[in-house]
Amino acid sequence: MTMETPPIEYQLSRYLADTRFEDLPHEVVQYCKQMIIDSLGVSIPGSLAPGCNAVADLAGQWGGGQGATIMVSGHKTTPPLAALANSTMMHALDFDDTLDASALHTFVNILPAALAAAETQDKVTGPELITSIVLGVDIICRLSLAVSRPLSWIRTATCGGFGAAAAVGKLLKLDAEQMANALGIVYSQTAGNAQGLVEGRLVKRLQPGFAAQAGVTSAFLAQKGITGSQAFLTGEYGFYPLYERGEYDPEPVTRALGDHYTILDLSIKPYPACRMTHSSIDAALELRSGLLDRLDDITQIQVIASPMVKQMVGKPFNPGRTPQVDAQFSIPYTVATALVKGEVFLDHFEAEAISDPDVKALADKIHVIASQDLAANDIFNARMKITLKGGETREAKIKIPLGNPARPMGMEMCREKFKRCIDFSGLKFDQDRQETLLKRVENLENMDNVQEILELMTL
């Protein structure tokens, strides 16, 4: 590595320390606010999902009534534990944003960490929060885009810890050396294997929270002078050689650094299920209008997708001890729901809906086939072939799922999703509070103290 081309770790640390709110394009600021609305909205019903109360209660017990806020309940605890609890509820329903190119989530790491850290400061302004979020997201996306290997680690967690540390470090005004230390420290806590995902265990919901928790701790340790590994990405035992077997391309990590902000590449999810199911759901909804009176005539449905999609969400639907998670990660279930119900929303992952005999009967006819013509980790493309009695067939092909920037959900759709999430929760979050929160976030660049967001999120 020559002096003309400094290590990517140095380039990232310098970029994080030097970037200001004034450097962010208008569209970046606007999309950041939309993503915050989306993330807060899914957190409210998420707080009621299995496992979330347990995490929030435990964090609250350990907090002693002081520190950062756990959303909805209003319990106070240490900032790392608040980040863990808030991340868990934000991610529980699998309704949070994705970077489709890497099949990972970002705000679930960044926003809980940034909000928890903000409460430790005398005052954090809206522009400061936006800048920290945009930069944290950028780190997650850039690190993940260097990797093309099939999913083994949950990169929401492994890359997410770096992003959380970067976001918190920005709020703490760390310089480049301190920022490098924060990233090196969080690397020592990097984890997030896929075993809980393939088994459908509740711990899958906590993995981004562990990354957010580690990011908060790491940035504060760096502020106190603790040093971290410097070659945390490319060293002999750095992230890419160790976690990704050395199979990575460093070029996307720093490509157009400071010119293109990868937050603009994020997707908002229209369906509360694994993003790998979404193109198949889109295909089912596209074909449904011509099948309304012929669902009983369906003899077979084939979904052709990438090998990773087949592995992660293509198994026959057989709900186990955590049926909600099993349903969220099932193409047979979500496609059958789309065809029978005409949509896929939160109520379709409740116990009664999951046991619907009509949905189950149709799900049993759905088979996912891995296409060797697609990249192993492609989550964009899905082709569906429905066969009816007598041999008649219907086909649809989806290249880009709804919610991707190429097929975007605008602010109005995002607002509608936010309100539907709150209505579904049944929690006391009246219209005045909803509108106040939406307007505050929509004008976040003018907010003097972001503590107001957490106050509005406490019911």
User: What share of residues is helical?
Assistant: 40-55%
Secondary-structure element order, N to C? HHHEEHHHHHHHHHHHEHHHHHEEEHHH
Radius of gyration: 22 Å
Number of helices: 22
**What's the CATH class of the largest domain, please?**
Mainly Alpha
The CATH topology of the largest domain turns out to be 2-methylcitrate dehydratase PrpD
Instruction: Characterize the biggest β-sheet.
Output: 4 strands, mixed
Architecture (CATH level 2) name of the largest domain: Orthogonal Bundle
Order of strands, main sheet, comes to: 4-3-5-6
Beta-strand fraction estimate: 5-15%
Distance between the termini: 53 Å
Coarse morphology: globular
Annotated CATH homologous superfamily of the largest domain: 2-methylcitrate dehydratase PrpD
Average pLDDT number: 95
- Count the domains: 2
Commentary on this structure:
This protein is of the alpha+beta class and 459 residues long. The protein folds into two domains: 8-269 and 418-456, 2-methylcitrate dehydratase PrpD; 275-398, 2-methylcitrate dehydratase PrpD (60s Ribosomal Protein L30, Chain: A). It is built from 22 helices and six strands. It has helices spanning 8-18, 26-46, 52-63, 79-91, 107-118, 126-145, 155-158, 160-171, 176-187, 195-199, 207-223, 239-243, 251-254, 278-288, 307-313, 323-328, 331-341, 351-354, 357-363, 411-425, 431-442, 451-456; strands at 68-69, 76-77, 298-305, 366-370, 382-388, 393-398. A four-stranded mixed sheet has the order 4-3-5-6. β1 (68-69) and β2 (76-77) form a beta hairpin. The longest helix is centred in the first third of the chain and has 21 residues, at 26-46.
